[in-house]
Amino acid sequence: MTDEDKAQARDRQLAGTAISGGRVRALLLELWQRTRLDWGFVSDRLSQTFRRETWLGSHERRFVAETLHGMVRQLRRVDAAVSRGSRRGAPRDADRLIAYLLLEGQIGVADAARAEPGIDWAAVAAIDEAIARERDPVVRLALGCSLPDWLAARLHADWGARAEPLARALGQRAPMTVRANRLRTTREALAAALAGHGLATTPGRWARDALVVDTRTNLFALPELKAGLFEAQDEGSQLLAELVVPGAGPPPAGGRDVVVDLCAGAGGKTLALAAAMANRGRIVACDVDRAKLDELRRRARRAGVTTVDTVHLPEGVWPDAREDRRGAIGRVLVDAPCSGMGALRRNPEARWRLREADVDELVGRQRDIATRAATLLAPGGVMVYATCTVLAAENQGVALAVADACGLEVVPPAAALGERAAALATDDGRWFTVTPDRHGTDGFFAALLRRPA
After folding, report:
1. Which of 124, 140, 122 has its CA nearest to residue 132?
2. For residue range 286-313, what is the model confidence (pLDDT) as tens digits?
């Protein structure tokens, strides 16, 4: 029996305990009820709980985390299933837990019936066949992939036949991907070091320094992280840095050895840029959140990065804060605040927290940030407008509006990614787009917009 088989057997044992009673069941129901109060970040809620509940072993923590994430991801499907097998009205939380474990194959119909005999669990287990018979594609998408109606409608309008496989992929668990820090190691050397801890890895398919960690582990406890040899970063996110700084080494000279990362946050892409630039030139990392910039500086020291200047933007307006940068920058990254609908694998609760009106508000903010950022560009300079969403209004819609308003040219991603762009761009080759169903990454979009020389 492999380690994975043993883990699955332990999961089934815990699932049986979770439907019949005990501390794991009580903890799961408490976490579920607290999560639904405000749809806050599940990961934060879990970390707080695990620090408090010291009786949980590593396997119990993993089971609780995966079950809670799964219940959030599958809420509409689970509710539809319980409603199909029950006449009680609104589903009860305990019934939701049993239904989720049944639909995931961790318990059987007989197990569910013993735990709660008042529900037709065979009908619950057949929910997917019932959803497949739904004729309205938007309703089928909303129920089958557990999405709010407005989001299902937008995905269907934006992606057509691809909406369902995309939505299903967004409902899966994300892989554990890291970026080897080329300032301190190579991808191959990092893989060997992790193998020394018994961790299996696979090179990423797309990004030069991506390494997928196949063995489940706590990355943040590894000495290689503390030594700055890697950072946890989705492969799609790593590719955005390659769009800003194509190839190895610093960007061309002549006023272009400065890169502005306008929405740097805690610095994941900033550090990837610094590594791609071989720790040469300068990166000006800006953000409105002082705490995130403090975290960026800490991570930069750990990674051996010495080329980053951080700038706090109290009003979120970079050009007005530093007039001397206008028209003088060769490369600008605008990793714009967005709905995050491309990262639902990691933050499944976002689908329930976000409202359609929020998207419309975000579009206005994205246009404003990118339009201001465009004033930084030197003649021939390139701005990479990027998001982690799969909604066209936030992506192509904003990019085209900004290009038109600022007189910028759309540059195909092939200019930065070469042959890889054939698999990493839209069918017309105009925009960079990666998605979990086709690339195994989170959903990312990027537009390369150039100031005419």
Report:
1. 140
2. 999 999 999 999 999 999 999 999 999 8
The per-residue pLDDT for 21 is 73
| Other C-beta atoms lying within 10 Å of the C-beta of residue 403 | 19
Q: How far apart are CA 331 and CA 260, in angstroms?
A: 6
User: Three-class SS of residue 109?
Assistant: helix
Beta bridge pairs of residue 284: 260, 309
Check pLDDT > 50 for residue 3. yes
Confidence of residue 249 (pLDDT cuts 50, 70, 90): very low
Spatial separation of the C-alpha atoms in residues 364 and 285, rounded to whole Å: 23
Give me the domain span that covers residue 116.
Answer: 3-133
**Same-domain pairing of 342 and 445:** yes
Q: Exposed, middle or buried by CB within 10 Å (0-12, 13-18, 19+), for 450?
A: middle
Asked if 410 and 399 count as a contact pair (C-beta separation under 8 A), the reply is yes
Same domain, 181 and 240: no
Which pair of tokens denotes residue 124? 């619950």
Q: 283 Cβ partners below 8 Å, 6+ apart?
A: 258, 259, 260, 261, 270, 273, 274, 277, 307, 308, 309
* Complete edge-to-edge strand list for the sheet that includes strand 176-180: 201-203, 210-213, 176-180, 230-232
Residue 183 has pLDDT above 60, yes or no: yes
Identify the pLDDT of residue 317: 56
Task: Answer for the pair 224, 230: CB distance below 8 angstroms, yes or no.
Answer: yes
Alpha helices (runs of H) in 277-355, residue ranges in sequence order? 290-303, 318-321, 350-353
CB atoms within 10 A of CB 282: 14
Q: Are residues 227 and 316 in the same domain?
A: no
